[in-house]
Predict the 3D structure of the following.
Amino acid sequence: MTAVSDALAKAKADNRAALIGYLPVGYPSVELSIAAMRALVEGGVDVVEVGVPYSDPVMDGPVIQRATEHAVRAGVGLRDALQAVHAVAEAGAAAVTMGYWNQVERFGVARFATELSAAGGAGAITPDLIPEEAGEWIAASDAAQLDRVFLVAPSSTDARIVSTAAATRGFLYATAVMGVTGARDRVGTAAETLVGRVRTLAPDLAVCVGLGVSNGEQAAEVAGFADGVIVGSALVRCLLDAPDEAGVAAVRTLAADLAAGVRRR
Amino acid sequence: MPAENVPDLSGHFGPYGGRFVPEALVAAIDELTAAFHETQADPEFRAELDRLLRDYTGRPSPLTDAPKFGEHAGGARVLLKREDLNHTGSHKINNVLGQALLTQRIGKKRVIAETGAGQHGVATATAAALLGLECVVYMGEEDTRRQALNVARMRLLGAEVVPVTTGSRTLKDAINEAMRDWVTNVETTNYVFGTVAGPHPFPMMVRDYQRIIGDEARAQVLERCGRLPDVVVACVGGGSNAIGIFTAFVPDEGVRLVGFEAGGDGVDTGRHAASITGGAPGVLHGARSYLLQDENGQTIESHSISAGLDYPGVGPEHSYLHDIGRAEYRPITDAQAMEAFSLLSRTEGIIPAIESAHALAGALQLGRDLGPDAIILVNLSGRGDKDVETASTYFGLV
Ligand SMILES: Cc1ncc(COP(=O)(O)O)c(C=O)c1O
């Protein structure tokens, strides 16, 4: 059992969905981003996704791009993310990294697994790594007993949902819409359909839904059908609007609103 | 694995290539891969593509002896494969016609493309006009300035050109933006990729559409010279014109294959685009290959006077050919390329693309080493009309 499985199991026992919050390390600074991650935990987030800023974030929309471009220019990388993981784990929440694959490859896959584990991290979400390319990561994460979160999308075939679920540990990340990250006004029906397919094809695995959720009301809606609700851009937006202590406070307030949402389903 | 038998079924060239993509794109690239294999075996599709290549593009492209240029290359016999004479002015059209027909076959009505120099964008806009497809081209803002003429050409052809203002505002960022469009609109949209990089099947598919360059040239050289060339040279950005001319010669062990990367101000200055000479293996834009990156795995911005070579990555098959020693890769600086650019213009009356001038500069170096008995086949990948402004600034002509 990792901290993520614990968090998901605890939420389930409380008859609610888990809340997963994303923030990239290094925006507005490494220090303030870690303060904002602590604020997430205080606000009621169960799992923190620690974003690793990358020069070519092809899956991210303008909000996350703006924050991570700033962090990349400041030289922030995987090492800083491991520091943030440590801080989140100390604050009492489960921490996973969320980053593009080249950074892990450059760091060294086995070394990444060892150091992530030593920092108290529960695992990693790998948005541009599909299981077919993940041999080295599967071995390293097995050795270090880390969670391995792969993604499924509305376009995934049944066969791919089955094989991706089989390679996954912790939870399966369902991308609710076809597209890049970014808050959306409405949570479409594609997410619920996708979660339904996953439940049939991989009944034993937790499914968390991300891409687009921005407030407590939407969180409650997604909590109605998923095991966990993932929120990113809306949190990053708080820091873009106020890249200081006020932004950190806004993150705490939004996290609390979302946490109330996942308890309302 | 013999170099002729790559990639494997999952798109790997030894340790390179593969698919490092969001899951949301996998269904579309699986569909594309299947459709590509199907159409390669479909005589009707091949006949339609061959007809367009002949009647629309003007293939086969000629092979031109360049004796006066050759005098500066140690007296070697320099033969130019004239991709500059293709409709739209470069080799890019070979690949685009294939992918545009494929888009029709899979029933999609909208194409997107990235472009650096604008040649791939112009070719895509052209094919879209011909086949009645909606076309959006992503181009780094920096490149829309350097290659303003090609922006106008694309718009004349009815395409929408979107200037990309993120990152280094060049080709790599245009690819990022095109990928974001694709993942959002994949149900209606096909991504017409311009080089032999990107996730499987692109490196294989673009190679197979471009290999006609070398297939033709090999027969043309044999007919004209009675033997194979000693060396085949090409410039390498992503690597499509180079793979296009190399592929037919890969099994000919006596034929050296040399790719010339953009050395910018010099590889030792750090301001260059020589991914194999000055980079290390990593993952960028969906494939594992050599790339320019820092110790954190962040992509380093490339620099080249040539927009079409100004890319920090390179196609995975080149990384593989390099590692197994079947091809060599060397840098050519901006200054060396511009000297060759000027030399070909004055000696042969052919103004080359600055990209292709890198291959010409390489031929000058090789010829001086090999001497007058050597036959050097150069892929003249494009014409220099688009570069007149850059060249006149460089040489102080206006
Ligand atoms: C004339 C010409 N040659 C070469 C290139 C480089 O691309 P590749 O390396 O894929 O041939 C370009 C790209 O724009 C080009 O326009």
